[in-house]
Write a structure and sequence with these properties.
By secondary structure, this protein is an alpha+beta fold. The protein has 2 domains: 96 residues, Double Stranded RNA Binding Domain, CATH 3.30.160; 69 residues, SHC Adaptor Protein (2-Layer Sandwich), CATH 3.30.505.50. Helix content is 30%, strand content 30%. The chain contains 3 helices and 7 strands; from the N terminus they run E-H-E-E-E-H-H-E-E-E. A 4-stranded mixed sheet has the order 1-2-3-4. Strand 6 and strand 7 form a beta hairpin. Helix 1 packs parallel to helix 2. The chain starts with a strand and ends with a strand. 20% of the residues are buried. The mean pLDDT is 84.
């Protein structure tokens, strides 16, 4: 696994780097094909923030944590990632057995009228079920993806009733 550590408003010490790599290294016992882990550590006043983005087979698993101390932020973010990875492994196992799980209702997120953050991702074509799993892993209320069967851009979103909706272009 390739681990990339970025720091904002702080210096990366050898002990902090080793601690982060050790904590992220334990995920390889759950998933062996992790291609990359991008870690961003930042400090703003008394807020120590750790963000981690893990790339696995084209899927993205992300988590972040903000505490008063960097080592506890790293501990908390790795715990969150561990729960998400276990959830991912259970979903893969249930898909293999042919079980269908109904999506659980997600907590509503507040909307902000200004664009305060912009992200770009390399995406691979995927089916609707895989996109639903990816959206659930990222804990988002919508997901934009390229549909592997049609080649079109689709949007998958969580409805207020807890189910999912799919937006496809008209042909």
């Amino acid at each position: 696994m390739n681990i990339i550590i970025n720091c904002k408003h702080m210096d990366l010490t050898k002990t902090l780097k080793d601690y982060t790599e050790e904590k992220l290294g334990r995920f390889e016992k759950y998933i062996t094909n992790i291609s990359e882990a991008v870690v961003t550590l930042s400090v703003e006043k008394y807020r120590h923030k750790a963000e981690v983005l893990i790339k696995v087979n084209g899927l993205l698993i992300q988590a972040e944590s903000i505490t008063g101390e960097m080592y506890s932020s790293i501990d908390e973010v790795t715990d969150k990632l561990e729960r998400q990875i276990k959830k991912y492994k259970e979903k893969i196992a249930s898909h293999r057995k042919g079980k269908k799980e109904s999506p659980s209702p997600a907590p509503q997120e507040k909307t902000v009228p200004l664009i305060i953050k912009k992200k770009s991702f390399d995406i691979k074509p995927m089916g609707v079920e895989e996109a639903a799993m990816q959206m659930d892993l990222l804990d988002k209320i919508f997901f934009v993806f390229t549909n592997s069967s049609s080649g079109d851009i689709n949007v998958l979103y969580k409805r207020k009733d807890g189910n999912l909706g799919l937006i496809e272009p008209v042909k």
